[in-house]
Design a protein that fits this description.
Keywords: Membrane, Transmembrane, Transmembrane helix. With 89 residues, this protein is mainly alpha-helical. The chain contains two helices and no strands. The protein has a domain of 42 residues.
Length: 89
Amino acid sequence: MLRQKRMLQRKQQRLQQQQQMPQQQQQMQQQQQQILQQQQQMQQQQQQQQMLQQQQQMQQQQQQKKKKHHHHLLLLNACVLLFFFVVVI
């Protein structure tokens, strides 16, 4: 009787361990997925920040150019218009 009980207990223990293993693996996978998601979110945030910074830089450059090159732009426009008139005529 004792032997049988021990055998049964061992079998049950083995079964429990086997059941626990997949659960642990699943937990591990879930944790890994969470970490990956967090990393992706971080990357996305960084990309968004970079995009914003680039946009800001572009705007600043445009503003600076507008201030500096306003006269040049007027001259260029005049030249282009003259050129078109010459070509058309």
